[in-house]
Design brief:
The protein is about 45% helix and about 10% strand. With about 350 residues, the protein is mostly helical. The chain folds into 2 domains: about 170 residues, 2-Layer Sandwich (Potassium Channel Kv1.1, Chain A); about 80 residues. A 3-stranded mixed sheet has the order 2-1-3. Strand 1 and strand 2 form a beta hairpin. Helix 11 packs across helix 13. The longest helix has 28 residues. It starts with about 20 loop residues before the first helix and ends in a 10-residue tail after the last strand.
């Protein structure tokens, strides 16, 4: 068997294609080609290469992923069965591990262990292993699930980043509490992170392969495979994006939302009191004490906190004792003089026989 170190692949032919080391060698190859061709001819040569590569990718996606031709492995996801290809699936560290550790050519993905991942999102991520055209199927409705799937499978940073950016655009006044509730199910080790600046959403390619729900890789019933790989914790599924999203939601509540309300001529304080009175304590405390908090001076901030606490006492904080303290001297260090504290309310004890 020929060694790849001398420029020959393990299949015995000269290695002229892209590889993990292509970045260091491609510039020399282009320089060699450009020395033989004038600028116009070289540009046409590059365009021909790109068209050829695009046609290969389209063929692999349509024939390999959508139709399951020449498959060498079966992937079972809930009630759906995919005929796929080990070489392509091995781009995912998670799937590569399952392929190497499973003695048969049938792999079961226990999607029921991952409540944030849907069949639709898993299909999009599988398609992405074959071609980036699958990114065109990511929508505001499925972006969060696609992000979870891409983080779980691994090796999909571009898809993760695209889904994450789309998630950020969906945070609104109407669904902010839903986002907070969702993030509360994801473990974190610190208070909500500092505000993050928003970046524009990349525009998807409109010339991608359209979604087709009638793939030959269709639905089959499966009940005979029982081996389940262990489920990672929720924080591992979302990876670093859990903390980023937590920071984005916090930024929206403290910076973006007040700005939107002011621009619309709304009563900022009145709306925020109602919103903040429903937040988990960690978010409420971090928001009130944040230097970015938009409600006036310390006295106004103190009065705002008292109004929110009065509502919280009747609802979300009825089993706790939350209070606000106005200190002095913190502003010199860029800190708030208004602090929120909390302790659980003491339960009344009864003597036996009372």
């Amino acid at each position: 068997m020929a060694s790849a170190s001398n420029g020959t692949s393990t299949n015995g032919h000269t290695d002229a294609g892209p590889s993990r080391k292509a970045a260091s060698s491609s510039s020399g190859e282009r320089a060699s080609a450009s020395s033989l061709l004038d600028n116009g001819a070289f540009t046409a040569f590059q365009a021909t290469q790109q068209e050829h590569d695009a046609s290969i990718v389209a063929h692999i996606y349509q024939s390999g992923f959508q139709q399951g031709n020449y498959a060498d492995i079966q992937l079972i996801v809930l009630n759906r069965s995919y005929r796929l290809h080990c070489l392509i699936l091995s781009r995912s560290p998670y799937l590569d591990h399952l392929i190497r550790s499973t003695p048969t050519k049938q792999i079961y993905i226990p999607l029921e262990q991952f409540p944030h991942i849907t069949e639709e999102a898993f299909a999009i991520a599988l398609g992405y292993l074959y071609a980036s055209a699958s990114m065109n199927l990511v929508t505001p409705a499925n972006a969060r699930s696609v992000l979870a799937t891409a983080c779980l499978l691994g090796g999909m940073e571009e898809l993760c980043a695209h889904a994450y950016e789309l998630c950020k655009t969906t945070i609104t006044l109407e669904n902010a509490h839903n986002w907070v509730e969702f993030l509360s199910t994801i473990p974190f080790s610190s208070a909500p992170s500092s505000p993050r600046s928003a970046s524009p959403l990349p525009t998807p390619n409109e010339n991608g392969i359209p979604h087709n729900h009638h793939f030959q890789n269709g639905y089959t019933q499966w009940s005979g495979y029982t081996q389940h790989p262990p489920a990672p914790p929720p924080s591992a599924i979302f990876g670093p994006y859990a903390e980023r999203l937590r920071g984005d939601v916090f930024h929206f509540l403290v910076v973006a939302l007040p700005g939107q309300l002011a621009a619309a001529g709304s009563n900022v304080s009145e709306v925020l009191v109602n919103v903040y009175s429903q937040l988990p304590f960690e978010y409420f405390k971090a928001a009130i004490e944040s230097p970015e908090f938009p409600i006036g001076n310390d006295h106004q901030r103190f009065q705002f906190a008292k109004a929110a606490l009065a509502i919280r006492k009747q609802g979300i904080a009825r089993d706790a004792e939350e209070s606000v303290v106005l200190a002095f001297g913190g502003r010199d260090q860029g800190q708030s003089n208004v602090h929120i504290t909390r302790r659980m309310a003491k339960r009344r004890l009864f003597k036996v026989g009372q």
